[in-house]
Design a protein that fits this description.
Order of helices and strands: HHHHHHHHHHHHHHHH
Distance between the termini: 58 Å
Shape: elongated
Helix content: over 70%
Structural class: mainly alpha
Largest sheet: none
Number of helices: 16
């Protein structure tokens, strides 16, 4: 009973998350959520195949194993498409070359595996399922059963390579997107992809666990209570990835294109500031000290640039070369300095009031920035 529960746990979680994502997509009609929903559906079908395998539904295995091989090579490209829908001005879903390269391989793998199952006689199919799928032995096989085993091995190796590629490409996109947001907004809560503590880490952990489990082989977990370990891990990760995705509602399309270009042009700034940058930074410091505009909620780089009589590019260059900070860091350091002064003068003042007076919309943002900057002022 316990074994059956753990073998079906990821499947049950996937069902719940597909329903939740469907409702979210119908409400928001967001392209990123659409790709996350497709990823969840593919994951649901994948774990449906796992359920058939772990519960020894032998008559269904030729079909489910064919679907499993194809889906295993599909889920990570789908997740990359989800990340790209958030982080790219021109997402990968609009690039036919990527779509062909990402989804041709799973289709070919499914056709080859399904074709081999169809070509094998009952004895060969049974030998392959018993010896390879459930015990991991390919040396005892021959003929089409041996060919099928090698096709599966090639697909496992391809999956591992695919995971590495997707991790690298996903990481770069999330890092670039978060950097752009930090350059343009003082308050990045619900704008940044919480990639470095959430989506990105969860994505990498899921990828690594998937690679390890594929390398070990599913047969290690058949009829063994040890299945509870990957089952609980995958269930938690699927839930977390889906939940974080449903909460995120900000993407590159919400950032004006000309502002993104400003941050791109500012990617490499000389360490030695120019006289123009120094002048802008001095004016910025003077304005911050006299007018304390950092106390405004949802302060934008564009707002500050207009007040200084300059443009976003020059202001970004001044912050980068003179203060070595992003706009987000600069404003939040000012806010935390102000908050600590308030707390020192009025230690009995509630923290909620301190946060509001310091320019914060939420306590979570206040505490996060207080932890980041209080020891570095």
């Amino acid at each position: 009973m316990i074994y059956e529960f753990f073998s079906s746990l990821p499947l049950m979680v996937c069902v719940v998350m597909v329903v939740q994502l469907t409702l979210t997509y119908r409400r928001r009609m967001d392209k990123a959520i659409r790709w996350l929903l497709l990823w969840a559906i593919a994951t649901l079908l994948l774990y449906g195949c796992h359920f058939i395998y772990f519960n020894h539904f032998s008559d269904l295995l030729p079909f489910s194993d064919t679907l499993y091989v194809a889906l295993n090579l599909t889920v990570y490209p789908l997740f990359l498409l989800y990340i790209s829908a958030i982080t790219d001005r021109k997402p990968l879903s609009q690039q036919k070359r990527f779509l062909w390269s990402a989804f041709t391989l799973p289709v070919i793998a499914g056709i080859v595996v399904g074709g081999l199952y169809g070509a094998m006689d009952a004895g060969e199919a049974k030998a392959f399922i018993t010896n390879y799928l459930y015990h991991g032995y390919e040396t005892t096989l021959s003929g089409l059963a041996l060919v099928q085993a090698w096709v599966h091995i090639i697909c496992h190796v391809t999956f591992a390579i695919q995971v590495i590629i997707v991790i690298i490409r996903g990481f770069r996109r999330i890092r670039r997107f978060n950097k752009t947001v930090e350059q343009l907004y003082a308050d990045t809560e619900n704008k940044e992809i919480e990639g470095i503590p959430t989506i990105l880490i969860l994505f990498i952990v899921t990828s690594l666990v998937s690679t390890v489990v594929n390398a070990i082989g599913r047969q290690m977990f058949v009829d063994n209570v040890i299945i509870s370990l990957p089952s609980v891990a995958f269930s938690a990760l699927i839930f977390a990835l889906s939940w974080v995705g449903m909460q995120h509602n900000f993407s590159m399309k919400d950032i004006p294109e000309e502002q993104e270009k400003d941050t791109d042009n500012n990617e490499e700034v000389a360490r030695t500031p120019s006289s123009h940058s120094i002048l802008i930074y001095e004016k910025l410091e003077s304005m911050m000290n006299e007018q304390q505009i950092f106390l405004q909620n949802d302060l934008l780089l564009n707002d500050v640039a207009k007040l200084l009589g300059t443009n976003r590019t020059y202001l970004l260059q001044a912050l980068s070369s003179c203060a070595h900070m992003t706009f987000k860091e600069y404003i939040n350091r000012k806010r935390i300095t102000y908050a600590e002064q308030l707390m020192a003068k009025n230690p009995q003042t509630p923290k909620t009031e301190i946060a509001t007076r310091s320019g914060y919309n939420s306590m979570s943002s206040f505490y996060r920035n207080l932890a980041l900057y209080k020891n570095h002022l």
